[in-house]
Design brief:
By secondary structure, the chain is mostly beta strands. The chain is 0% helix and 42% strand. It has a single domain, classed as Jelly Rolls. Strands 3-4-10-5-8 form a 5-stranded antiparallel beta sheet, with no helix packed on it. A 3-stranded antiparallel beta sheet has the order 7-6-9, with no helix packed on it. A hairpin with a 5-residue loop joins strand 6 and strand 7.
Amino acid sequence: MAIMEDYIFPSRESTALNYTLVTKLPFIDDILSPTSWVRTFNPCEINNTEYVWHRDRKDREVIILDGIGWKFQLDNELPFNINIGEKIFVPKMVYHRIIPGSTILRIRIHELD
């Protein structure tokens, strides 16, 4: 089962604080439970500009299942390589992004709140 979530991203196109509602996201979700799912990103099917800075409403634990050459970056930190089997804690309401690698990325996300 795949779902698409709506996210709100700040717009950088003006000095006023505008928000853009994004309904087309660069991933497919396979639901495991109400608080856990597998998310798949395919760098061949997605333009790099679609990987945007964003925030999540709840704390999340992310486990890397598959993917080569991908990076993860939290706000005000340098990006770092992510490797299969690693766990990453993503605090709620902290901006973050992924930087595409060369293969499909599969991650397991578990909401903690």
